Each structure stands twice: as structure tokens, then as C-alpha cells.
Amino acid sequence: MHLHFLEDGPALLVEGSRRVLVIADLHIGYESGLARQGVHIGSRSAGRIERAAACVREASPDLVLLLGDVKHSVPKTSRQEYRELPLLLDTLREHAPLKVAPGNHDGGLGQFLRPHELLPADGALIDGVGYLHGHTRPAPALLGRLIVLGHHHPVVSLQDEVGCALRARPAYIYAGLDEGCLAGGKAAAGGGTRLLFMPAFNELSGGIDVLQVQGSGLGPLSRCMREEEAEVYLADGTYLGSPATLRPAAGHRPA
């Protein structure tokens, strides 16, 4: 199995016996959510959909997998989402079969999907890799494998050349899972489950610093990840180091 990072997404191509292109946290309808809070900007979904289509064209996958939070409004579906979700889904279907792992924002999404496109909320195995959004416990069949998840929108803060301004950049976190913690027991030594947290595709949706993901309380997998052995990567696959080396107290400035 090989992992290929598509920086222009960010998106991930998982290549085994099948080529699976994974996109997490599109949050179509995000702009209407901002409008309800008094912040009015035009929809950027057209550019977002074209960016997704460009990733599909680049990767030539056998399957496109949307890793949850395809839509944004909770619990209802906004007018923006009714307009834009069909365009997104039909655009992707033109290139490859489609599957969706539902997220916590995806209530009502099923009405836009075709039979067999919606995966279980606790995840599914595809070509030996587990996929789920990340707000729920994984199905037992996913344990002992690589699990790819979204939901947390990880970002890493990088300093500019003079060490002043901070920029939040989308990031991946690769870490082990404490399966004893997940089961509600004592920490377990070993365990073969690995986690790959994906950054959000939506460029407006913000994120959680990689140093705060474990303590964010956003899901059982982040709470039980083994941060001490985690690795952080930028959207293009550049290796930055462990969370420990990225802490300000460590005196390390990633390039």
C-alpha cells in the first residue's frame, strides 16, 4: 500500500489493489452557516468543487471516498446545500464510483446519494484500510489496521522567516492508537492500529492545532491516540516531526 498526498486538495490517494482518493470535510454550505452568524460572503463552492474534480483527474482513482461532513448545516439542510450538493456529487460521479462515510454534519445527506453509496457511521474496510469520519468509535473490524479519518481539521502553526508571524497550514497526523483507552480500560502496550488524521478540504472551516488534537474532546480516536509516537506532515507530504518537536518550549522552528 502506498499513500500519495495531493497538496492542491488537500486530498489523499491510497494505492493498493485499488486506487482510493479520499477527501475529508468539504462542508458544502459553510457560507450560509456564516450568514446565519451575521458574516456574509459569497459561496465559494464552485471553486471548491472544481478543486475536488481536479484532484480526481490527477489521481485517476478507482473510487472517490468522501470522509464525512460533506454538508455543513446541522441539523437541517440549507438552501445553499440543496443547490450545491447535487452538483458536487454528480461532478465526482462523472470520474469514478463514489462512497461517503457520514459525519456529524451529514444528517439528511442520504437523500442526495444513490443506493450503496453511504457507508456505516462506524466505518468500513476498503482494500484493507479502515475509513470513517472520526466522531464515533470504529467498528471492531477496523482495529489492527490503518484507519483514515477526518473530523478534526488538523493544522500546524509555522513561523515566517523572521520568526514572527504564525501561519496555520493544513496537516496530517499519523499516530498509533491506545486500544486499551478506546475500550475504556488501562493503557495497552502495543496494538497494531494506526491512525491517519486528514486535514479539511474546505479552506474556510478552520482547524485545530496538531498540539491540541488529543485534548480537543472531539472523538474517541483522537482522545486515545498515542501522541508520543505521532508524526506530523504538511499537505504535500513534507515531514515536520513529532508534536513534541513542534511545541514552542522545544525551541524547534519547522522550516
Explain what you see.
The chain has helices spanning 30-36, 45-59, 79-93, 179-182, 220-223, 243-246; strands spanning 2-6, 11-15, 19-23, 63-66, 98-100, 124-126, 129-132, 146-149, 154-159, 166-177, 194-197, 208-209, 225-234, 239-241. Helix 2 runs parallel beside helix 3. The protein has one domain (2-250): Purple Acid Phosphatase, chain A, domain 2. The two termini are 29 Å apart. Strand 2 and strand 3 form a beta hairpin. With 255 residues, the protein is of the alpha/beta class. Strands 6, 7, 8, 9, 10, 11, 12, 13 and 14 form a nine-stranded mixed beta sheet that branches. A five-stranded mixed beta sheet has the order 1-2-3-4-5, with helices on one face. The chain is globular.
Regions with pLDDT < 50 over 5+ consecutive residues?
250-255
Tally of separate helices: 6
The CATH architecture can be named as 4-Layer Sandwich
Order of helices and strands: EEEHHEHEEEEEEHEEHEEH
Can you count the beta strands? 14
CATH topology category name:
Purple Acid Phosphatase, chain A, domain 2
Q: Classify the secondary structure makeup into a structural class.
A: alpha/beta
Rounded mean pLDDT is: 90
Strand content: 25-35%
The gyration radius over C-alpha positions equals 18 Å
Q: Helix amount, in percent?
A: 10-25%
What is the C-level CATH assignment?
Alpha Beta
Number of domains: 1
For the record, give the distance between the C-alpha atoms at the N and C termini, rounded to a whole number.
29 Å
Major sheet size, sense and barrel closure: 9 strands, mixed
Q: Looking at the structure, what is the overall shape? A: globular
